[in-house]
């Protein structure tokens, strides 16, 4: 027996109108209420009614280019962005990169061949300071809307979305300092990436401001892999066994954050 909207509303303790606003991503609903309704929807297995008699034409294809899906942050990006695009009648096309597989540039060419309406790049080549930015300028010059997530390109007039790396590092350092730690190490990805550059700058500034220490000797660059994180952590521990280690880049995450204390 199918679960109804009325049952969802009753279980969540809200009106049917509120449930409808949540399911249609409308404004005017508190975040706590939205999360409660979505939790109830998942718990009861509610399925929105499908009306094949009134099909609506897609507004176009939108490419979503992500590095890989092993890191849980990227499937989360894909799920949220894909849902929002679908709600606006766009058809999301997920383009996942893997080592030795299809490259970002190759995916772009495929999307252009299918007359894509736009492309969203998550932690793409735009975050690599060694990469050629002309690939994005070429897209802008042909009038194609693009969005850059995690990283940006100076002088390129496009929407760029990133977290506040400096504030994140201040929070991490201040938290560990409040626990009494002073020897705080940082395990982070290759130096050429924009989020890495910002995180390191924020980390060193926070250490200087909070602890009056120069911790540049405790910054360990490595690859964006689990193995890379393990190697970096071992090096930091062997470098005088710091009481704490802050890993602002989670492994195998390329651009997300977390902290870990040891010792």
Automatic annotation (TrEMBL):
GO molecular function, one term: transcription cis-regulatory region binding
Segments for region (Disordered): 238-263
Record-linked Pfam families: LacI (PF00356), Peripla_BP_1 (PF00532)
Cell cycle found in the keyword field: no
Signal sequence, renumbered to the chain: none
Sequence ranges assigned to domain HTH lacI-type in this UniProt record: 3-63
Recorded coiled-coil stretches: none
Keywords: DNA-binding, Transcription, Transcription regulation
PANTHER family for the chain: LACI-RELATED TRANSCRIPTIONAL REPRESSOR (PTHR30146), LACTOSE OPERON REPRESSOR (PTHR30146:SF153)
Name the UniProt record assigns to this protein: HTH lacI-type domain-containing protein
Native source organism of the sequence: Acrocarpospora corrugata
């Amino acid at each position: 027996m199918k679960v109804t909207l009325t049952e969802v509303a009753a279980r969540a303790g809200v009106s049917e109108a509120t449930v409808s606003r949540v399911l249609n991503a409308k404004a005017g609903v508190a975040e706590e209420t939205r999360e409660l309704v979505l939790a109830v929807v998942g718990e009861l297995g509610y399925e929105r009614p499908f009306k094949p008699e009134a099909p609506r034409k897609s507004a176009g294809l939108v490419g979503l280019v992500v590095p890989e899906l092993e890191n849980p942050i990227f499937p989360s990006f894909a799920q949220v962005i894909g849902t929002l695009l679908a709600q606006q009648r766009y058809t999301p096309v997920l383009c996942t990169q893997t080592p030795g597989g299809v490259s970002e540039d190759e995916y772009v060419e495929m999307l252009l061949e299918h007359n894509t309406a736009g492309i969203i790049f998550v932690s793409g080549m735009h975050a690599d300071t060694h990469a050629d930015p002309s690939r994005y300028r070429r897209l802008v010059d042909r009038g194609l809307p693009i969005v850059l997530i995690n990283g940006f390109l100076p002088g390129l007039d496009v929407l760029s979305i990133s977290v506040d790396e400096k504030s994140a590092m201040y929070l991490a350092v201040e938290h560990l300092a409040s626990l009494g730690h002073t020897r705080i190490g940082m395990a982070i990805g290759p130096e050429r990436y924009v989020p890495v550059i910002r995180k390191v700058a924020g980390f060193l500034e926070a250490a200087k401001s909070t602890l009056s220490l120069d911790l540049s000797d405790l910054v360990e660059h490595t690859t964006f892999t689990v193995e890379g994180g393990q190697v970096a952590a071992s090096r930091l521990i062997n470098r005088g066994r710091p009481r704490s280690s802050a890993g602002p880049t989670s492994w195998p995450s390329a651009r997300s954050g977390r902290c870990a204390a040891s010792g």
